[in-house]
Amino acid sequence: MNMLNFTVGPVMSADAVREIGAEQVPYFRTSEFSATMKENEQLMKEFAKADDNARVVFITGSGTASMEASVMNLLTADDKVLVVNGGSFGQRFVDLCELYAIPHTVIKMETGQQITAEMLEQYDNQGYTAFLVNVHETSTGVHYDIDLISKFCRRNNLFLLVDAISSFLADEFDMKQLGADVMITGSQKALACSGYFHNRAFATSNRAHRTQ
Predict the structure, then answer these.
(1) Among residues 132, 72, 79, 120, which one has the least CA distance to residue 100?
(2) Distance CA 7, CA 22 (A)
(3) pTM to 2 decimals?
(4) Predicted confidence (pLDDT) per residue in 63-122, tens digit
(5) Secondary structure E strands in the chain
(6) Tens of pLDDT along 13-70?
(7) Are 92 and 65 in contact (CB under 8 A)?
(8) CA 196: distance to chain centroid?
(9) Which of 4, 51, 122, 146 lies most in the core, judged by the most C-beta atoms within 10 Å?
(10) Phi and psi at residue 7, in whole multiples of 5°?
(11) Domains with residue ranges and CATH for the chain
(12) What Cα–Cα distance (Å) separates residue 126 from each residue in 67, 82, 147, 179?
């Protein structure tokens, strides 16, 4: 029986992609492999509309692994972070901040609620240093107003870390225009690559190399 997969992810891959996945795994200590990874990085930067000097980090792990890698490597106890929590994935960012003792304030959203300018205004000029958001909260289906969030972060000079795992390439996202410092995505969503390996990537701008 042939079943069609209409879930958010892992999505169905094209035959050509699945055929490549059936090939022998290439040896990674070769110039050919290095060239392939450089090409992959360039393509990811183009897709994300990132700065030319941005870098891509590929992680063989879950979306949570990339979220954790971002939080533990880019934030410290000297930060003061705003976290949008509108569902299970927003809660995951909250849990990671608690795990690594990152000072944070939770913007708690009701189920299905959209973020507004009024919600953010109360946090203006309050000494916050970073903003974490799952731009598409998969557990509730809400796609947050990333343009509104970007404007808020710009006027407060906040480090903007965006989980775009389920929205990347499905919804418009211009990393450079939005001033996003980190964008996390995954291969098994709109990229429609094999979900078995759960390869994730996060593109980082120059500002992601932070010093406290």
Answers:
(1) 72
(2) 23
(3) 0.86
(4) 889 999 999 999 999 999 999 999 999 999 999 999 999 999 999 999 999 999 999 999
(5) 55-60, 81-85, 104-108, 130-134, 136-137, 142-143, 159-163, 182-186, 199-204
(6) 778 877 877 888 888 899 999 999 999 899 999 999 999 899 999 888 888 899 999 9
(7) no
(8) 19
(9) 146
(10) -75, 170
(11) 62-207 (3.40.640.10)
(12) 25, 11, 21, 20
Within 8 A by CB and 6+ apart from 154, the residues are 179
Measure the CA–CA gap between 5 and 26, rounded to whole angstroms. Answer: 29
Which residues share a beta bridge with 175?
none
The encoded tokens of residue 58 equal 């590929």
For tokens 């996390």, the residue is: 184
- End-to-end Cα, the chain, rounded Å: 56
Per-residue tokens: 65: 């692994």
Q: To which residue do tokens 């849990």 refer? A: 95
Three-point CA angle 70, 11, 200, nearest 5°:
20
Contact 133, 85 (CB under 8 A): no
DSSP string for 160-174: EEEE-TTTBTTB---
Tell me how far apart the alpha carbons of residues 31 and 133 are, in angstroms, rounded to a whole number: 37
The two tokens of residue 143 are 């796609």
